[in-house]
Design a protein that fits this description.
Number of helices of chain A: 10
Largest sheet of chain A: 2 strands, antiparallel
Strand content of chain B: 25-35%
Shape of chain B: globular
Radius of gyration of chain B: 17 Å
Oligomer: heterodimer
Number of domains of chain A: 2
Number of domains of chain B: 1
Order of helices and strands of chain A: HHHHHHEHEHHH
Strand order of the largest sheet of chain A: 1-2
CATH architecture of chain B: 3-Layer(aba) Sandwich
Largest interface: A-B, 16 and 22 residues
Structural class of chain A: mainly alpha
Shape of chain A: elongated
Distance between the termini of chain B: 17 Å
Strand content of chain A: under 5%
Number of helices of chain B: 7
Number of strands of chain A: 2
Helix content of chain A: over 70%
CATH class of chain B: Alpha Beta
Helix content of chain B: 25-40%
Order of helices and strands of chain B: EEEHEEHEHHHEHEHEE
Strand order of the largest sheet of chain B: 6-7-8-3-9-10
CATH superfamily of chain B: P-loop containing nucleotide triphosphate hydrolases
């Protein structure tokens, strides 16, 4: 249970006028933490300057768990994405078996066919990535203003750890860049199987389809 | 006379280890430059298989195929693909144009693979489509062309690579009689004016009538090889 009182009332009760046991400093972002802590220690050598990780190791643990689980979720999404691309490109190849057979019959080398499939995947990715980013940015932008309200599910638990029940997400651009690179690599890897499938086609059989 | 196709005792056997089926059985065939030859026979007589073997799309189980002095049976995959690109024109039964490309692009595509320069490609596409009577359909997609028109684009495409000969597998099978006759007129004209060699399989008696040589296949063997009277020459 939290109890809030005016500082002057508390000071009067404790007979310590104009005093405070603790001052909390809220920073703009977590990355500033070590430098600000260092500076404060230099300015106020007599006081105990602790950061939130030191005061509340359990919150630190939760924060690092959240980071790890986010990585797992990203990995699952990338695997699903790779399967999605394999599926799409495999369909693109199978639907056009006759056309590919005809291209081989007319004189298209296998390397060119592979290049064609990989190029198609690249185009799909290069169109999909910006569209996805735009949608993600719009969603996060909207939610960063509106907030995601968790009070129904976990009001007490979140406030106990010092988190607000309403979260305001933001896009971490560094991670976005990493994810974009991972997605492009996954797409290229995923195009290998359909490309190999194409190369194994025999023109005579493919044309019959 | 110049020998273009020289097939030595070729056979194509399926299931050689269990119950062997001879799709083509010990066929010996010579085709000279400028021939207009029909390959006829009932369904399953091996016409398509023989055309596929001559076109290097399938490898014979036995025998040797020499095209214009080059033995294609000994070639590796990519070598054979390049050889097809430069020496053999194909016209398939079901048109087989690339649906997302216009008539012009479908014809141009072969020359693109051959590495021909843009200017020369464009000129040749125009003259080829003119030859097959489709100058006004140059930018039309295959889906907006009739079957006959699509097959004429396919003929133009087959000619685009300046092949040694054109193989056509039942080119009129999916066409109405007027379109079929029109296509044959064009093929005959190309044969006569450009000395283009044609070898085509067919069921169609009207097509057979116009061939100068008719080879009949039965059960994978040549049962007769006649020089039919041509109405073209």
């Amino acid at each position: 249970m939290n109890l809030y009182v005016q500082r002057q009332d508390l000071n009067a009760l404790l007979a310590t006028p104009e005093a405070a046991h603790e001052v909390a400093v809220l920073l703009e972002n977590d990355e500033l933490l070590p430098t600000v802590q260092q500076k404060l220690k230099a300015i106020l050598p007599d006081l105990k300057i602790e950061n939130w990780r030191e005061i509340s190791p359990e919150s630190d643990l939760i924060a690092s768990y959240t980071g790890q689980s986010a990585m797992i979720i990203v990995a699952i999404i990338v695997i699903a994405l790779a399967f999605g691309i394999v599926n799409t490109m495999l369909m693109a190849v199978l639907e056009r078996t006759r056309e590919i057979g005809m291209l081989m019959a007319l004189g298209m080398r296998k390397e060119r066919l592979v290049t064609m499939i990989v190029a198609e995947t690249c185009m799909l990715t290069l169109i999909g990535v910006p569209v996805g980013l735009l949608l993600a940015w719009a969603t996060v932008e909207w939610l960063s203003k509106k907030g995601i309200d968790f009070s129904v599910f976990a009001n007490d638990m979140m406030s106990e750890f010092g988190f607000s029940a309403i979260l305001y997400p933001e896009l971490p651009w560094n991670s976005v860049l990493q994810v974009v690179i991972i997605v492009i690599c996954a797409a290229l890897l995923a195009s290998i199987y359909p490309a190999m499938k194409t190369v194994r086609l025999k023109p005579v059989e493919a044309i019959k389809q | 006379m110049e020998l273009v196709i020289d097939a030595h005792n070729i056979s194509k056997v399926y299931n050689p280890d269990t119950i062997p089926v001879y799709a083509v059985n010990n066929v010996h065939l010579h085709v000279q430059r400028g021939e207009f030859t029909a390959l006829v026979g009932p369904s399953g007589s091996g016409k398509t298989t023989l055309l596929n073997l001559i076109g290097g799309l399938d490898a014979p189980t036995e025998g040797r195929i020499v095209i214009n002095g080059t033995d294609i049976t000994a070639m590796r995959t990519n070598e054979l693909i390049d050889f097809r690109l430069r020496n053999i024109g194909f016209v398939f039964q079901s048109f087989n144009l690339i649906p997302v490309l216009t008539a012009k692009e479908n014809v141009e595509f072969i020359m693109l693979l051959q590495g021909i320069e843009k200017k020369e490609r464009e000129e040749r596409v125009r003259s080829l489509l003119q030859e097959v009577g489709l100058a006004d359909k140059i930018d039309t997609m295959p889906s907006q062309l009739s079957g006959g028109q699509q097959q004429r684009v396919a003929v133009a495409r087959a000619l685009a690579s300046k092949p040694q000969f054109i193989l056509a597998d039942e080119p009129t099978a999916n066409l109405d009689s007027k379109s079929a006759s029109n296509l044959l007129d064009i093929m005959a004209m190309l044969n006569k004016e450009e000395n283009m060699t044609f070898l085509f399989s067919t069921h169609d008696s009207r097509v057979i009538e116009r061939a100068r040589r008719v080879i009949t296949l039965v059960d994978g063997r040549i049962s007769s090889d006649t020089a039919a009277v041509s109405t073209v020459h």
